[in-house]
Structure formats: structure tokens, C-alpha cells
Automatic annotation (TrEMBL):
InterPro entries: PLipase_C/P1_nuclease_dom_sf, S1/P1nuclease. Residues 1-30 form the signal peptide. This is S1/P1 nuclease. It comes from Arenimonas fontis. One of its GO terms (molecular function) is endonuclease activity. Gene3D superfamilies: P1 Nuclease (1.10.575.10). The keyword Transferase does not apply.
């Protein structure tokens, strides 16, 4: 994924480069780095003063102590292949069979080893002032990332195609008139946001101006479950699987507003979670 926010390039040159990067990206990297940064920037703007101070304290050893700067950490450690990255590799998603999104914990999240269980555990660690500082900092980093993941529909997708990773797509848009191979998961991870051709600060400011999308209030005891099931239901309700395996820019333009609403909602929900946990006065 792009790690810089370069000035917008001319579309004819931009799309082949973006596609090459997308094809090289690891599978199941929910939203792009930019997508996670957007969730984090939106959330940080809505933190209470006390929660913001707590975040800066927990991140004080980081080169840049902001939520956006650590938003992709959970993907980075997974790619590096260390013990924590390996242990957390199933925490980024939940696979639920069928369009009814009938979640069965023993089947879909055995031993809590999915995004629903991971968010609950990391929230508890962050909320426990008796936990070691390192554990609470890591919990904050995981939450910033995983709350974003829970709002990417393909991260609550079907097991038979691994959340769209095995659903092959030929992209035939501006930069690939002859077609380029990718998959549906990567289209949602990367293409929908990157094809907007906006740098992260500009995109975050635009999303902040959006009205907060209407959504049911999650069960306060199981918010991550409800967020994931909300994502799961969107796959069917919004027709995210194309009628054939070819897509063009019309698919990106049609579904980008949904992706942007999910980012906006993820940012608001992440801020609410952190305010609740880190600001005792609220």
C-alpha cells in the first residue's frame, strides 16, 4: 500500500500504478492503509480531552503519537510474521456462511479467535489500568485497526470464498482497458477508496462533512458482533458481488459511497469506544 500521500497524479498514469500495488498487497488486509488512517483521523477528532490525553500517553513512545500513525500496525505485524502477528492473524475477520448472516460463535469464532472475540478482549485490556502499559498500548493499536476492519463488508464475508479473496475479478477500467486480474476482497480493501484519488487529509475532511449514517444502536454488551453482522448483511443487501466477474469504473463509482459511509461510521464508533474506556468522567 502507498505509504506516502503524493499529489494527485493524472488518471491515465495513476490507475496502472494503483492496480500493480493492489495486486501485490497481502490478501485480507482490510481497507487500505489509507482506509485505516481515515478511520483513525475521524475518531481522533471526536475524542474527549481526557481520552485524547490518555491516547497520547499510551502512544508516547511511538515516533508519531497519533491514532492515524498506528492505524495499520496490526497489518504490519502480521506481514512481518512474528509471534504476535501470527497469533492475531484470524482477528481481522469473521466468516459467516449464507446470506442470512446467522452468526454461530462455536462455528464462526471458535475460542473467540475472530474479529468479534478480539475486539472484546482488547477492549477489556485497554480498560484495565492494572494491565502492563505495553499490553494496553498494543490493545489500543489493535482496537484502532480492528474497529475499522469490522466495518469493511468483506471482512464479515463468506467462508467458501474467504471473504471474496477467492472470487476472481477482471478489472476493465480507465487504466486497464484489456483487463487486469484481482479479486473482490481487494476491490473493497483498496480500489474503492484509492480510485477517489484523494490524499488522506483531504479525504478525511470530506468524510467529516458527511452526516453520520443512520444505523441501529449496537448491543452495548456485544458491539463488535453487531458491527460485523451489519457488514455481513450489506454484502447481500447492496449486491456487492457483481453479476459476472468483470467490473469497470462504474462498479467503483456505484459502491464507493457505501465504503465511505462505513469509514465514517467506523470512525464515530471507534471514538465512542475510546471515550467510554479512557474517559472515566463520561
Amino acid at each position: 500500500m502507498n505509504r506516502r500521500h503524493d499529489p494527485p497524479a493524472r488518471p491515465g498514469r495513476l490507475f496502472p500504478l494503483l492496480l500493480a500495488l493492489a495486486l501485490a498487497a497481502p490478501a485480507a488486509q482490510a481497507w487500505s492503509r489509507q482506509g485505516h488512517e481515515l478511520v483513525a483521523e475521524l475518531a481522533e477528532a471526536d475524542l474527549s480531552p481526557a481520552a485524547r490525553d490518555a491516547v497520547r500517553d499510551l502512544l508516547s513512545d511511538e515516533p508519531v503519537p497519533t491514532l492515524a500513525a498506528i492505524a495499520a500496525w496490526a497489518d504490519d505485524i502480521r506481514a512481518e510474521g512474528g509471534a504476535l502477528g501470527e497469533a492475531s492473524k484470524h482477528w481481522h475477520y469473521v466468516n459467516i456462511p449464507g446470506s442470512a448472516c446467522d452468526y454461530v460463535p462455536a462455528r464462526d469464532c471458535p475460542d473467540g479467535d475472530c474479529i468479534i472475540g478480539a475486539i472484546a478482549r482488547q477492549r477489556a485490556i485497554l480498560a484495565d489500568a492494572g494491565q502492563p502499559r505495553r499490553a494496553r498500548t498494543d490493545a489500543l493499536k489493535f482496537l484502532v485497526h480492528l474497529v475499522g476492519d469490522a466495518h469493511q463488508p468483506m471482512h464479515a464475508g463468506y467462508p467458501h470464498d474467504r471473504g471474496g479473496n477467492d472470487y476472481q475479478i477482471q478489472y476493465r477500467g480507465k487504466g486497464a482497458p484489456e483487463g487486469e486480474g484481482t479479486n473482490l476482497h481487494r476491490v473493497w480493501d483498496y480500489w474503492l477508496l484509492r480510485s477517489a484519488n484523494l490524499d488522506t487529509p483531504t479525504y478525511a475532511a470530506r468524510l467529516r462533512r458527511l452526516a453520520l449514517p443512520e444505523a441501529p444502536t449496537p448491543d452495548p454488551e456485544h458491539p463488535a458482533r453487531d458491527w460485523a453482522l451489519e457488514s455481513c448483511r450489506l454484502i447481500h443487501a447492496e449486491g456487492l458481488y457483481p453479476s459476472d466477474h468483470d467490473i469497470g469504473d462504474d462498479y467503483l463509482d456505484r459502491h464507493r459511497p457505501l465504503a465511505e459511509r462505513r469509514i465514517r461510521l467506523a470512525g464515530a464508533r471507534l471514538a465512542a469506544l475510546l471515550n467510554e474506556v479512557l474517559d472515566p468522567a463520561r
